[in-house]
Each structure stands twice: as structure tokens, then as C-alpha cells.
Amino acid sequence: MNMLNINWKPDNKSSTPLYRQIADYIKEKIGNGEWTVGSKLPVQRDLSKIFGVNRSTVIEALDELKADGLIEGRGKKGTVIINNTWSLMASLPSQNWEHYIKSGIQQPNLHTIQIINKLEYRDNIIRLGTGELSPELFPKEMMKKIFANISNKINSLGYERPKGSLYLRKILSQYVKKFHINTSPSSILIVSGSLQALQLISMSILKPGSTVLVEKPSYIKSLHVFESSGINLRGISMDKDGIRLNEILRNLDNRTSLLYTIPTFHNPTGTVMSQHKRDNLLNLCMQERLPVIEDDAYRELWLDETPPDALKSKDRNGIVLYMGTLSKSLAAGLRIGWIIGPESVIERLGDVKMQTDYGASSLSQYMAAEWIESGLYEIYLESLRKNLKSRRRAALKTLEKHFSDIASWNIPAGGFYIWLKLKSKINMEKLFYSCCKNGILINPGYIYDFNTNYNIRISYSYASMYDLQFGLKKLSKIIKDL
Ligand code: PMP
């Protein structure tokens, strides 16, 4: 049943009684068709917290709505909307969207992720798991320059070509030379974030019923991109230098369609695949004719030394589909990523992309091009690395101080994440909810894994330095008190 998300409070200063304001608010939501029949209201205790009123005020408002025939108490199932104001007035049957909501190809998010996605925007919550750059790190002054520069260059903002702006693709084909990737603009597709590239791949070039091999754990397990197209994920375990090659071999069968890997600053473990393993992996994939998606979202975020070259840089057979994005290194909201691969694949993906959204935002494409072409991106990345390095230092210092007795962890060489492994087998869901109640948002490891685990993905990229340290200290206390 669809639980309603309420982000509103009655006005304490108004002369209208609080219960009246609440009843009117709910009636308006129902009357506008925003809250449909079958939707569930939070329990009274939660409603009184959300509205900031006594429980008796909530009860008074709900009683009125019950008397009007709009809602019904269903014991332990809570209070449900049973009628629409208009359908009541017109004596029409009301539309029940519930079974539509449960239909459709795309699977819903994991419940924990739905909660994370909502709580991220609550005031005063400390986000210890968010895989995004902090607003503090946003290069505001440089962004102003970019806006000024592009304002002189834009002559129209129409649809772009199926593969995206040729201007941006030319710039990207030069930019990726930095990673020893040689490609021409015709082999690049601009996507609305690299997640879309995965969506396009799953819809356009993979067969339902096939299997995609992925690291265990993996970022991709936290979504249902492949599963919603009827594709199964099979987890392959990792060691300290990346995915286990023997295990890939053991898991190959005639249903295996490709391998999805994050070799550089892996999400969520931070692991970097060694050069040696990269070479062996590429050989193995060529021998087995196993195409690879190389997700390189974090490459620019090295903190100690540049990481080994991308798999793509040595791919002479066109078996690697290489994904890049500006989301992790500059601004996730630009929604600009790219995928590089054989032209035939890129054209197929571009054709499907045209049917999906007619292309990524042209404005964002101009901005991306300007960032890279002007050289500002490179200058900004240097300072970003310094900032991330001090954040990493602060996070590790705080962990030393408060987690030494309860957890172990890796020291990431880049990216955003510390993969914290708890020493005792506590109930991780309980920990997640307990953190939420205490104003701390974490990404528990189970959302990324195939089996139970006792990890937490800590990100040092998002929370302010103060919140990061304060939040980690609080988290250690919550774990110890659980
Ligand atoms: N790949 C990886 C490994 C990620 O961590 C993320 C973001 N969490 C994405 C892809 C998606 O990024 P975007 O769609 O914003 O480019």
C-alpha cells in the first residue's frame, strides 16, 4: 500500500484551530486527486510528530474525515483513504490507482533506498553515506564564468543529434586521450547521467533471461536497472585488487551476457583493480568473448596517485563499453555522462535514447563542453582533490578515535567511500532505522550486496567537515548502544 509522504505543518499563529487546518489540508489533497483512494496515512503518533501537534488534535481531524466518509481506520493496517471528495459528491466510483502502481516493468526501489531518497532532503539530517559532492565544494565562481562564456556561444537550444552534441563529443574524444583512450566522436554517446547508459544497455542490447556478472558487492545491486528488464545479476567476489578472475571463469555459462565492473575506486568498497589484474581481465574477456561495461565514474578523484589506465585504453577488439560522467567530479545535477563503444552499439543506444528523452539537456551539454574546453575543469579538479584529501584525513582520524574497537576499514586511494566493516553481527536494518531516528543517514552495506553483510558505506564527500566528524562520533555511539 502506498504510504503518503507529508511535508507540511499547520500554522500555529493562525486563528483557525489546528485540527481544522489539518482536516482541510487532507481534504484538499484528496480533493485535488493528489492523494488517491487506497493510499495510507502515517500512524497517529507519526502524524502528530509530522504536524507538530498533540495526538488529540490529530484524532479530532481524523474523526472529521472519517465522518465525511473520506478515510477509514483499518486496525493494524492504519488509516486508509477510501473515497474522493468529488466521487462522493457525484456518487461516482473513485479511481483506485493501487494496482496500477504495483504494475509496470520497472521494479520499485529497495525500501531502505526509498527512505534514504526521502530523508536526504530533511532539515538537520547528517548524510554520512551520500555519494555526491558537498554543496561546500561547488565551484561557484568558476560556474559563473562558465555561464558567462556560454551565454555568448549559444545560438539555439533545440534538440541535439541522436548521439548528442557533436561539439561536446569532439571535446570528449580529446579529453579521454588523457586516460589513453583513443576514440572518435562517432563512437561516443552523450547520456543523461551514466545511470542512463546502463538503462539503455539493459533495454537495447541484452536479452531478458540473460545474466550480467558484477562485483560482489556492487553499486548496481542497489538499483533494479538490469533486473527490471528481466536480466539477472550474479555476484563475483573481490579481493584487495578487484574482482576474482577465477570466479568469473567458474560462473560463465551460455546465459552470461556481459560483465559490469567498477575497476577504479569501486563503489562501495573503494577498491582499485591493479594494472596486472586489468591486463588479465581484458585477456580473459577477449578469450571468452565476454563484453565488459567499465564504469569509470570516479577516475578523476584520485587522491594519492593517478590510478592504472582504464581497461578501455587497451581494448583493441571493441569489447569494452566505457562509461564516464561529470556527476561525481563536478555536478550530479548537470546529468551529463558518456558512453564509448563500437559505433554499431553506440548507434543502437542512441536510437533508443532518442525514443526515451530526445537527448540530454542541450544547456548541460554546452556547460560540460565549456568546463572541459576552457581548462577550468582541470584547475578545479586539482583543488577538489586537495579538499577531498583533507576530508578523507578527517574521516579516517575520526574513525581511529571512535571505531577502532568496533570496526575495521580500508583507506581509499580515491573516490568517496570508506567501506566500514563492523566487528559484531548486529541487526543492520535496526541500525539503519535507529540512525534515522537520531538524525544520521547511512548507506547500509546490505543494499549493495548479495548476502548479509555488516558493512556501512561511509562517504567523506558530502557532509560538512563538522557534521562528518560529529556524525561519525554519534554513529559509533548508536552502534555501541544497539
Ligand atoms: N556509476 C557509479 C559507480 C555510481 O556510483 C553512480 C552514482 N552513484 C553512477 C554510475 C550514476 O551516476 P550518474 O547517473 O549521475 O552519472
Automatic annotation (TrEMBL):
Domain annotation HTH gntR-type: ranges: 16-84
CDD domains xrefs: AAT_like, WHTH_GntR
InterPro entries: Aminotransferase_I/II_large, HTH_trans_reg/aminotransferase, PyrdxlP-dep_Trfase, PyrdxlP-dep_Trfase_major, PyrdxlP-dep_Trfase_small, Tscrpt_reg_HTH_GntR, WH-like_DNA-bd_sf, WH_DNA-bd_sf
UniProt KW keywords: Aminotransferase, DNA-binding, Pyridoxal phosphate, Transcription, Transcription regulation, Transferase
GO terms of molecular function: DNA binding; DNA-binding transcription factor activity; pyridoxal phosphate binding; transaminase activity
SMART domains cross-referenced by the UniProt entry: HTH_GNTR
Matching Gene3D superfamilies: Aspartate Aminotransferase, domain 1, Type I PLP-dependent aspartate aminotransferase-like (Major domain), Winged helix-like DNA-binding domain superfamily/Winged helix DNA-binding domain
Cofactor(s) named in the record: pyridoxal 5'-phosphate
Domain of life: Bacteria
Family: In the C-terminal section; belongs to the class-I pyridoxal-phosphate-dependent aminotransferase family.
The protein's name in its UniProt record: HTH-type transcriptional regulator NorG
Species name: Clostridium luticellarii
Gene that encodes the chain: norG
